[in-house]
Write a structure and sequence with these properties.
The structure is a homotetramer.
Chain A lengths: L13 E2 L5 E2 L21 E3 L4 H9 L6 E4 L5 E2 L7 E6 L7 H15 L4 E5 L15 E2 L2 H4 L19 H11 L3 E6 L1 H17 L4 E6 L15 H20 L4 E7 L6 H9 L5 E3 L13 H12 L1 E7 L25 H16 L5 E5 L12 H19 L2 E2 L1 E6 L2 E6 H5 L10 H10 L9
Parallel strand pairs in A: 6-7, 6-9, 9-10, 10-16, 11-13, 11-14, 12-13
Antiparallel strand pairs in A: 1-15, 2-5, 3-4, 4-17, 7-8, 16-17
C-alpha cells in the first residue's frame, strides 16, 4: 500500500466556501500555553514514516505526500443556530456504530449548539418516502444510554437507493451536513451524493465515517470495530483450542469474517496465541500436495496431537469458485463457504489418506463478532472519529472521510479511499508476527 | 417427573463395608454448637415438596420417598494413608469439569490426606494400555491454576471401552476410589464397572458426577455447566436481537445444544428476554398451517418488524427424520440439523407466500457455549459436587452419583439416574415463564 | 433457621376479597395434558425437607409447615381493564432491579392487559408531592432495553416517608397494586402501608419483592442480585490472588459487602477458590493470641509465601465498636471499617512481631459489586420473581412478598420475613464448603 | 513532547559487535515478493509527522530525527545453539507481563532455537543468591497456558539490588541476553547493568521492555497494559454512573492510578463517556473560588441532578503535599490520597455552603485494574514487543528498549527513555477529546 505514487492534488479536501464564523469552542491558537488548540488546514500527517524515503523524495524533487490533519478549526462555515444535521448508517452491522452516532449528536449539540439532528432509519431507505421510515430527531436524551448497545439504533439496510431522491430529501429537509456511516458501497454512494449536491449547487456537506469490519478501506489505518471484532473472535479461538486439546487428535476450526482481507483472522490469531494455522485471502495456499495445508496439518497432528485453525471467509476461494456465481445485495461477489468446505475436506483427507481418526470441531461465530457493543478501545476511537467528523462538517468540508494515519486523525477525500481496496500484505509486520506466533510455514504451496 | 412411583429400595446406596475409621475432618455431631456438622446416613431430602401430596402418601400408607443426604460422614471406610484415587472425564466437554477435578484433588489431598490421585487421560481410553495415554499424578500444584480453563485438563473421549480391561487397570494400579465425570453413557459405564468390581469382589468405590450440558439426567435437579452454558447462549441471543432489530424485517435465528431436552434454550430465552419463539424437543410444533410456526412468525413480523427465535438442536426432528439414520460415537441417534433447515425453510416460506423480504441472520454458537470455563455459579456447584463425591467415596459408598434435589446435595444410585431421561415438561414452571416472557402461543399445532 | 416453630397461621396470605374474574392467561387446570397450569392456593412448598423430621412432626401431631406456592391463579381479583399498578424501588442498589421492573411491566401489559403502570421515582420520595419527582408511565417501549443497565431506572432513595402521605398518593392516583422492591426497611414500610390501607378500607394490594445484596431476608432462600454480586466479588479476589502471589510475602485483602451476613464473602470465596481466610460476622474470631487470626496468617505466610483474605464489612466489629456510634440514613447501625483496620493491623503485627516484610494489597470493590447489571442467573430469577409478584397482585393477595424456598417460588406474609434477620449459620453446608475449600481453622478463637 | 531538539546521536543503538550469523528465520530481503521481510538497521521511523516541520528542518539544515526500526535482522550476533537468555520482571504488576514472558520464550525457542531460558524470580531479588529464589527454566510447556493469567508468573519485587551482584550472576550463569520488563526504576537499573557489563567487557545484551501502567515512559507512544487498565477503569466508571444517577443528587467519584500522568483517567473517561469531570496531575485546578471545581460541580448538580468524577491519584497534590513526605520503596515521592480527600471535602463543601444533600459514592478500584490479564489489544501489543525484543537481542543490540512510535515498533536507547518523564499535555488531541466529551471547563482555576 505504501508503493502508491499519489499526487498531492488527490489529497486535497473540497469545501463549500470560506469559513468565516468564529467557532464556539474557544480553544487556543498558540502552542505552549497548555490550552487545547485549534488545528490549521495546513497541519498534516505525512504518508511515509521512513527517513530515507523522505530524503529520497526530496532529492528527486517529488512532493511529500501528506494527509490534512483532522480537528476543530478556528473558523467554521455553518452558523450553528441555523444548521441541521443528518446521520445515516448503512450496510452490515459493526461494533461502535452507536458510539459514532452518540458522539456526533453530543458534539454537535453540546459543543456547537446545533440542536436539530435527524437520524435516517434503515440506511438509505430512510431518505426515500416510499419506505415509510420517518426520520427520528436525535436529542442527547435519546442517545445518552446507547453506548452498551450493539448494532445501530437507526437500523441499517443494504443496497443502493436513487441518489437524486436522496438529495431531494436532504434539500427538502434543509439538511446542512450529512454524516454517512458505512463501508465501501456507502462511501461510493456518499461520493455520488456529494457530486449530485455539487451539480445542483447546494450547500450540503457530506462526511463519511468508514465502517467495515473487514478493515479493507484504503488510506485508513484501521476501521472502527475491528478491535472489538477480533477480541470476540479470539473467544471463539479459545473454544476451538479447548475442544482441540480436549480430544484425541482434536482439531478446532474457526471461520471468521474477512471477505477479501484477513485482518480479523490475523489479529485474532495474535490476540490468542494458540492458533497453528491462519488462512487468509491474501496468502494463497494449496490444500493437497507435499507442501500443502493438509500434509502440514497432518505433521502437526502427529507431532503435537491437536491443531487449531482459523480461516477467513474469503480464503481459498479457488477451491470453491467454480460452483458460485453472482453477487449479494451490496454488489459483492458471492463466496463459497470455505469453513464448511474445510470441515468436510479435512475429514476426508484424514479418512482417506491416514490412520488418524480426527475429532474436528467447527465453530462459526458469524454475526456474534460484529453485533457486540464496541470495547473500550473502539469506544474511544469511534468518539474521536465522530468528533473529527463534526469538526470537518462544521468547517464546511465535504466529499471526504475521517480516518487515521500514523496514529493521527486525518481528513481524506472519499474518492481516494475508494480508489482501491486495502489488503493485508504478507510483507506487513503483522503477517510476520503471525508467522512467528503460529510457526506455520511461510508458504504452503507446491511448485 | 414427579409422577414416578419410586420404591424406597431404589434409593438405597450400596457400600463396600462398614465405615470404621474416624474421619480426619474433626467436625461436630451436635446441632446448635455453631460448628459445622457431619451428615448422618439417615439424613434425607424428600422427593416431594407439596404438603398435600405428603399427607396423602401417609394416609395411604405409602412410604415417603427421599434421597440420602450427601456430606461428610463421621466414620469413613478407607484409610487415607493407603488410599489411591482415580479421576476420569468422558464424553463431550462441559463448563466446570476442571473445577470438579480440582476440588476432588484438593479435598482428597488437603482434607483427607490422600496423597496419590491419578488422572486417567482421554476418557476411558486412559485405562487401556494400548492407547498409550499414561495416567498423570494430580498434585495440588498441578491443579491450582486450572479454574479459568475450559474443557478438561485430562482430555476426554467418547465411546465405550472394555469394562473388564478397565477394572483390570483399577485393580493393577490399586485404585480405591474411582471418580467418573460424564453423561448418560459414562454413567452407564460406571454402573457396569461397579457391577464388574462387585463380581470380582474388589473393594473399589465408583462414584459418578453427572455431566451433561443438556441437563437431561433424571433425579438430578440441575447438572453442572448448564448455568454457564445458557449464560453464553444468551450472548448469542443478544447478537441475534441486535441483528434482527437492525435490519428491515430482520430475523435472528439461534440454534443451541439440547438433543432431547430444551433446558438450555428455555433458560437462555429467560436470561435475555428478547426472544419471541423458543422451539424445544419436548413441545411439538407444526411449521405449516394456520396455527403453525411460520404463520405465527409472519404475524409477528407484520406487527413488530423483527423477530428472535431460539431452537434447540433436537426440536422439530419430525421434519428431518426421514433423511437421517444411524448413531454417533456415543450411541446417540444422529439428528438432522434443524437450524440449517429452518434457515432455509423460513426464507422459502416468506419468499413463496408473502411480499416480505426477510433479513435472516443465523447464529450457531455450537461449541462456544460448552468449552468456556465455569461461571461463578457453576464453580461453586462443581466444588460442592466434588466435595460431596469425595465424602461419599471415602465413606465407602459405591454405585452412586452425587446430585442435588430441592437445593440439597444427595447421594443417589446410579441405576436410578439411568432409569429414564429427564425432559423439560411443558407443565414445569420454567416453561410457563417462557410462555409469559416470549408471548409465544401455548401451542403451535394444527388440529 | 430451621429451628423455628412456626404456626400455620403465620404463613397465610391475606387477600382483598374473592377472586372472581377469569384470568386472561388461558392455562390448563389439568396435570398431564402437557399444557402449563394454573397454581392453586392450596399448592404448597414444605418448610422442611428431611423425612424424619416430617414423620416426627406428624407423629407428634404438629402441623406440617408450608409456604403457599406462587404462580398464576385461574381466577383473579382485579379487572385488568380498570387496573393501575405502581412500582417503586427503595434503598441501596442491587443487580437485577431493572429486570424486576421490566418483567412486572411486561407481564402486566402483555399477559394481563394492564396498560397503566406508573414508576415512582427516587424511592418513597416519589409518592410525596413536595419532592417534585413526577411519576413516570412505564410502557413496554420504555423498559425494553433496560436489561443491560445496572441500578434502577426509577432511581432510589433511603429513609422513610410518611405512610399516610404514601397511601394518600396511591388513593389519589387510583393505584390498585403497588410493587415495592426493597430491603428490610422497605418491607417494614410496605407492612405499614398495607396496614394503613386496611385501616382505610381501600382495595390496594401491596406486594414486596425482597431486595438485599446481603441476602439477609428470612424465609427467602436467596435474594436476587446475590449471585451477580459474588460473581463480581470473585473478580476482586482474582486480583487479590494475582497481587498476593506476585510479590514476596504478598497478602491480598478484599473487603466485600455484608453488614450482618457473610453470604457474599462465603460464596465469593467458593466461586474463586484461591482464598485462604474468610472472615464473616457470623463466625467470631480473635486477631491476637495463639489461635488468633494473625498467628494463623503468619503460619500460612511462612509455609506458602502468600495469602488471600476476604472479609465481610460486618466482621470483627468487636474491634471497632468502641469508636463508632449512631445509625445511617436507613436506620442501620454504623459500622467501623474492618477493611482499613485489618489493612493497618496486619502490617503492624508483622512489623512488630516478625521478621517478615509483608506486601499487603487492599482491595475494596465497594459499589462495583452492586451496580452491575444482573447476570444470566439473576436475570432469570428476577423475571420469575416479577412474574409471580404480578400473579399474586392480580389475584388480590396483599401484605406479602414473593420468595423462593427449596427451589420453588412462594408467597409469604411480609410480617414473617420481618420477624428476624437471616444469618449464615456456621452449621449450614455452605460454611462447611468454605472450611473445606479454604482450609482455614474451624475456629480462630482463644479459650 | 514534540518540542525536543534531539541530536541524531542520541538515537543510535549500541551493539556488542558485528552480527555475522545468518538468521534461522528464512525471511526475504526483497520488497514486493509477498514474503515477509528482514528489517535493515537503516530502516527508520521519523520522529515528526508534520510535513511543514520536516521541510523546515531540511531548509534549516537540521537533521531529520528518527528511531531505528525494530524487527528481525538477516544477520544475528548470537549463535542460537550457545545462547542462554534470562527474563526478569520488576516493579508493580501490569496487564500483559505474562504475555511478554510467553512470547519471549516462544520466539526464542521455536524461531531462534534458543533452548535455555531462565526466569529470575521476584524481580532483581532473583539475581541475588541471598534471597534463595532459584531461577526457573522456562520451557514452552511451562508458559503455554499463562495467557489468561494476570500478574507475572515470575513474581516481582521493588527496590534496587546491587548492580555488581546482578552482573556477577549473569556472568556466572553464562546469560547472553537479559530481558528486563519494568518501569522507570527498572530501566534505570537496566542502564546501570548495561554500563557495568560494558565496563567488564562482557558480551551480554540488555534489552528493556518498558512496563508502566501510568504510560509515563518518554519516546514510547504507549506502554503495554494501558489499554487493559483503562478498559477496567471504565467498568468502575460505569458503576459510578449507575450509583450517581440512581440517587437524589448522586455523585460518583472514581480514583484511578496515575501518579504523575493522567493517561488512565483520560482514556477511561473517553472509553465510557458518562464522566463530567476528569482531574489529572497535568492540568492544575482549584477546588475553591468562583471558577473552582466545587462551584462547577455545584452548577452541574443543580442543572442535571448528578455527576460523575474521575480523579488520577496524582492530581491536586497541592492540597495534600504539606502532610506528606518521603518516598516509597521504588523511590517515588509519596502521595497524599486525593480520592479520600475529595470524598470528604466535597461532602463538606455541600454541607457548609449549599442546601444540597449529596449522595456521594466513592470507588477506588485500586489493584483491580492492573492485575487482570491483558485484553486482546494488549495481548497483541505485548507479543509484538516481545518478538521485537528477541530480534534486537539476537542481533546483539544492547542498552536499549523496544517501543512504538507512529504505529511502528522501534529500538530506542534506554538512556533516551530515561531522559524525562512522559506527561499528558493539555495540548494533546486526547485532552481536547476529553474536554469535548465531558464538557468540563477548559480551566478550573481562579485568577
Amino acid at each position: 500500500m505504501e508503493n502508491l505514487d499519489l499526487r498531492e492534488k488527490e489529497l486535497e479536501i473540497d469545501t463549500l466556501g470560506e469559513a468565516k464564523i468564529i467557532s464556539p469552542l474557544k480553544l487556543s491558537t498558540v502552542y505552549g500555553d497548555n490550552i487545547a488548540n485549534y488545528v490549521k488546514d495546513s497541519d498534516t500527517v505525512l504518508f511515509y514514516h521512513d527517513k530515507n524515503k523522505i530524503l529520497d523524495h526530496i532529492k528527486k524533487g517529488k512532493p511529500l505526500i501528506a494527509f490534512e490533519k483532522a480537528g476543530p478549526r478556528q473558523k467554521i462555515y455553518y452558523d450553528p443556530s441555523k444548521t441541521k444535521a443528518g446521520i445515516v448508517t448503512c450496510g452490515g452491522l459493526c461494533p461502535g456504530i452507536n458510539n459514532v452516532i452518540r458522539s456526533i449528536v453530543m458534539t454537535l449539540f453540546h459543543r456547537y449548539n446545533v440542536k436539530t439532528i435527524y437520524g435516517f432509519r434503515y440506511g438509505c431507505q430512510g431518505f426515500i418516502p416510499g419506505y415509510g421510515h420517518e426520520p427520528v430527531l436525535l436529542l442527547p436524551e435519546k442517545v445518552r444510554d446507547i453506548l452498551g448497545k450493539g448494532g445501530s439504533i437507526l437500523s441499517s439496510s443494504r443496497g443502493p437507493q436513487d441518489v437524486g431522491e436522496i438529495v431531494d430529501c436532504l434539500d427538502r429537509m434543509n439538511i446542512s451536513i450529512l454524516f454517512m456511516i458505512g463501508g465501501d458501497g456507502t462511501l461510493r454512494c456518499s461520493q455520488a451524493i456529494y457530486e449530485e449536491i455539487k451539480k445542483r449547487g447546494l450547500k450540503i456537506s457530506v462526511i463519511g465515517i468508514p465502517k467495515t469490519i473487514d478493515n479493507d478501506i484504503s488510506y485508513v489505518e484501521k476501521t472502527f470495530g475491528l478491535e472489538t471484532a477480533f477480541s470476540i473472535a479470539a473467544e471463539a479461538i479459545k473454544s476451538a483450542y479447548v475442544e482441540a486439546s480436549g480430544a484425541p487428535y482434536g482439531i478446532g476450526l474457526v471461520k471468521v469474517m474477512g471477505r477479501m482481507s484477513g485482518f480479523i483472522a490475523a489479529n485474532a490469531s495474535l490476540a490468542l496465541n494458540v492458533v497453528n494455522f491462519v488462512l487468509i485471502p491474501e496468502v494463497p495456499f494449496d490444500l493437497e500436495g507435499p507442501n500443502g495445508f493438509f500434509k502440514t496439518l497432518e505433521k502437526r497432528l502427529r507431532n503435537r496431537g491437536y491443531a487449531v485453525i482459523i480461516v477467513a471467509e474469503g480464503a481459498g476461494q479457488k477451491y470453491l469458485r467454480e460452483n458460485i456465481e453472482g453477487e449479494d445485495d451490496s454488489g459483492n461477489p458471492k463466496l463459497g463457504d470455505i469453513g464448511i468446505y474445510l470441515h468436510s475436506e479435512i475429514k476426508n483427507y484424514f479418512k482417506n489418506n491416514t490412520d488418524i481418526y480426527v475429532n474436528l470441531k467447527y465453530i462459526d461465530p458469524s454475526y456474534i463478532i460484529r453485533s457486540v457493543p464496541a470495547n473500550a478501545h473502539d469506544a474511544i476511537y469511534c468518539m474521536q472519529l465522530a468528533q473529527n467528523a463534526v469538526h470537518a462538517g462544521m468547517a464546511g468540508k465535504t466529499g471526504m472521510i475521517v480516518g487515521r494515519w500514523k496514529g493521527q486523525f486525518t481528513n481524506a477525500p472519499v474518492k481516494l479511499a475508494l480508489s482501491q481496496r486495502k489488503y493485508l500484505s504478507p510483507e506487513d509486520p503483522i503477517w510476520l508476527s503471525v508467522l512467528e506466533a503460529t510457526g506455520q510455514p511461510i508458504q504452503m504451496v507446491n511448485e
